Amino acid sequence: MSRDRLQELQSEARGQDHQSMPMIPQPSELDPSSQFYQDVRNVEQEIDTLRYHIETLSRANQRSLQAVGDAQTQRILTEVENIQTDLTTKINSIKQMLEHLTAQNQHLPHSHPDSAARRGRTTALTRTFQDTIEHYRDVDHTHWSKTRDRLIRQYRIAKPTATEDEINSAVDDERAGQIFTESILASTRMSDARRVLRSVESRQREMRQIEKKALELNALFVRLNEIVNAQQEVIDTVEIQVNETVKETEAANVQVTKAIEIRKSSRKKLWIISIIVLLVLIGIGIALWQARSNPSQLTSMQ
């Protein structure tokens, strides 16, 4: 792929980014919650763009392994470097956006009705970003492994008698690069040793860049885990508070139920006592009535 074609593709990608990015309303036009979810949509779009760049990198890596000649190899390696630069810029941008969302959440009271939902959304978004970064690392590692295998084949061609330890030292250790160089230049099996040497140096430099990028992505993973943990701590706190509230509500319901049962029992006892008292009064009334109706019986009894 020519440099002009690369620039054309990159221009199309940037154009798609701008076309797919909706107009962001000003903060004054939105309430805080609406602005938060608008920011979330922006991050989602940026992650989609990041995935596109990663797939573009994967295809460019494949072409670099199939390149023939110094000119084509260097052209594709330059393309790869440009894509890597775009990826780094995009990753840093998304990281800053997630940190901004995290800062917004930290200033939100736990009692806010959207607190748990916003923190949960930020956590989910961060994990999606982590999955995308993990895919990026897989693409880089796959290319690193294939590049290393290619260097091993070239070294064996240059020095068929080389041992495994010697090959590994020449390929993996930067300080052992001179051994690789001398073996290639001294080889009688190579018709164009210097051309092969330039290719080897380019591949070794590419491997070192991938290793450096892997360290940077590892550091990014640590930071993303911190963001997730910060959100999760608050979510756990909210869940604990909710569970405590539920328990207190359940306990209150039990007490209310007991009070209702006691009240019902008290009413029942009151009715029984009232009936007994009424029966006693009726009995006394009957006795008095009979006494008044038969006074002679009362006198004889005296």
Automatic annotation (TrEMBL):
The chain crosses the membrane at residues 270-291. It holds the Pfam family SNARE. Residues 1-31 are annotated as: Disordered. GO terms for biological process: exocytosis; intracellular protein transport; vesicle docking; vesicle fusion. SUPFAM superfamilies: t-snare proteins. Keywords: Membrane, Transmembrane, Transmembrane helix. Belongs to the syntaxin family. This is t-SNARE coiled-coil homology domain-containing protein. GO terms for molecular function: SNAP receptor activity; SNARE binding. SMART domains: SynN, t_SNARE. It is a single-pass type IV membrane protein. One of its GO terms (cellular component) is plasma membrane. Residues 197-259 form the T-SNARE coiled-coil homology domain. It is found in: Membrane. InterPro entries: SNARE, Syntaxin, Syntaxin_N, T_SNARE_dom.
